[in-house]
Amino acid sequence: MLSLKIGAGVWIYLQDQFVPREKAKISVLDYGFLYGDGLFETFRAYEGRIFRLSEHLDRLGRAADRLALSPPSAEILENLLYETLRRNRLKEALLRLTLSRGEGAPGLNPAPCTVPTLVITARKFEGYPKDDYLNGVSGVIVQARRHAAALDPGLKSISFLSNILAKLEAKKKGAFEGIFLNTEGALCEGAVSNLFWMREGRLKTAAAPAGILEGITRRAVLELATRMKIETEEGFYPAGDLFAAEEAFLTSSGLELMPLTSVDGKKIGKGLPGRLTQRLHHAFREAVRER
Fold it and tell me: Which of 43, 116, 200, 226 is the S-S candidate for 95 at Cβ 3.0 to 4.6 Å?
């Protein structure tokens, strides 16, 4: 049996009940463990309220349909997520919902997996260190390439090996984040983040067909930019477009908007967090507290 201990609160939801962390175990024959056959979502809670919860659950539902998985209803999942917060006495937190195909006989035959495995964890999280936002972080363009036709990045799959390889390469090179290009050489996203940059008065980010997961925070930033009358553009861009940018940042539920100040050892703009990044991050933090 595989025990779930690291990075979780005292109480974990597993299958149909809440169990203490030390008793949270899944079968070694679970297809999530054997083959990475499953999905996950990461949620951010602010003051006890989960940010854009319905959008996360909608994305999960669409992906589950594609994989022929049958999660509980969005209403049930919402109640379980909030109950996970309550039982762990958390208000500022990161939650993770993992849905796998469940236990079955070894071999690529999903038919015997009749009961999906559902796990929900939560941990206290109040954000990254302030110095990261004051100074910005570094990135590197990694050797691995995204191929959307091979494994659709739009599925938030627990098959995360390419992302782990990107993180390992970034760490080896002393960088905070690894940045993917696709097989055509176009910018995609970070290992655990979406990528934005400002160039010639436009806020740019890779289009979904380039090979990205359309993050919930990414969508929030695009909406905020439109509201603030900042011109946005989604498309296919070479790495040189990022190196010529005035400023750049990364987005995710945990990062919010993290300034990206260098890539491959080269400064982005002046090598400092940009004014637009700071304006958008301020607006984002106001938005997450709205009721």
Answer: 43
